[in-house]
Write a structure and sequence with these properties.
Length: about 350
């Protein structure tokens, strides 16, 4: 049986709002502060899974699934489930039309001004980089989850996307840039470490991985800040091969190539440390160990001081037309106009 099309802002038969000029207006009144932050995170990082979002902003998978389902119905986000070799892959979320319109209105621009297009947003579903990008996100969201469970002792203060890093630093193009804070008990000053993450799926030649150190060496020379470069690898065997390659002299014919002696480098293997990337998972290059925590990797005093809370820079950092969102959601329960979804934590 045919049904008449829904009016803009009114549900279709499949539960999603119809596209139209009134869609953003219909959505705006229904978004919480946390919802808007999630949209910002999707703009910055392009794709996040149910697991990522649960670690970042929800107490349970059930609460995450329920709220993201509502945002999907409102066309704030779109979603897909990639084919898995075994079992079922988690839902993957990207920014959709109404969500992009809301963010553009907040920033006084258009979705195109935010470099957003729906076809590009959904193209990640078929991209060969999908596993790499979601794996990178998994390292950062594991840090966020550890911070969430630490009662304020730990904090992921900064998480920049790959494209923001590429725009900011030219030749140094990490998969992500972060800042991690560890507050020791007893009132001691907090330890802070900046880091660059290189997420390795095990398919890239080791020579290509180590060649990336050239850009980091040049950046350290230009800024005077030797930021650690962290390689997250899938297996112990891959780590051993990478560490052997890092210990070798520069390859023949490239006398100017950087080495791990010129840039702080550490490696970690997925799944071997119960505390994940927030624990003593990182093995510095050039020595047998032990494995260290993030804040033990950076030379003292090399991390830049964080900005004052609520005081964004005068211009968006990293050359993109929006400010990088903080990797921690706002305290949305206390904000006017926000509400708590049933069953959330």
């Amino acid at each position: 049986m045919l049904t008449s099309p829904a009016l803009p802002g009114q549900p279709r038969t499949n539960g999603r709002l119809a596209r139209g000029p009134q869609l953003a207006a219909a959505l705006a009144a229904r978004l919480t502060a946390r919802d808007r932050w999630i949209l910002r995170m999707l703009l910055e990082h392009r794709v996040l899974t149910t697991g990522h979002l649960t670690d970042l902003a929800f107490g349970t998978t059930r609460a995450c699934t329920a709220r993201m389902g509502i945002l999907y119905q409102l066309r704030a986000v779109d979603r897909f489930r990639p084919l898995a070799v075994a079992g079922s892959a988690p839902l993957h979320f990207v920014l959709d039309e109404a969500g992009a319109a809301i963010l553009a209105a907040e920033d006084g621009t258009t979705p195109a001004g935010l470099t957003w297009r729906r076809d590009r947003a959904m193209a990640i579903a078929l991209s060969p980089r999908l596993a790499h990008d979601t794996g990178t996100g998994g390292v950062f969201t594991a840090l966020a989850a550890a911070a969430r469970a630490s009662s304020g002792q730990l904090a992921l203060e900064v998480w920049w996307s790959e494209r923001r890093c590429a725009a900011a630093w030219d030749r140094a193009r990490p998969d992500g840039y972060g800042r991690w804070r560890d507050q020791p008990p007893g009132g001691a000053p907090p330890a802070v470490a900046d880091f660059f993450l290189e997420y390795d799926t095990g398919t890239e030649p080791l020579t290509r991985l180590t060649a990336k150190l050239d850009g980091y060496r040049d950046l350290a020379a230009r800024t005077g800040i030797p930021t650690p470069v962290l390689f997250w690898v899938p297996t112990m065997r891959r780590e051993a091969a990478l560490r052997a390659r890092l210990a070798d002299p520069p390859p023949h014919g490239t006398p100017g190539a950087a080495s791990a002696a010129q840039v702080p480098v550490a490696t970690a293997v997925a799944g071997i440390n119960p505390d994940g990337p927030a624990g003593a998972a990182w093995l510095p290059a050039g020595g047998p160990g032990p494995r260290l925590r993030l804040t033990q990797l950076a030379p003292p005093g090399t991390a830049a001081p964080p900005a004052e809370p609520g005081d964004p820079p005068a211009a968006p950092a990293g050359g993109l037309p929006w400010h990088p969102p903080a990797p921690v959601p706002p305290d949305w329960r206390d904000l006017p106009g926000s509400y708590q979804e049933r069953g959330d934590e």
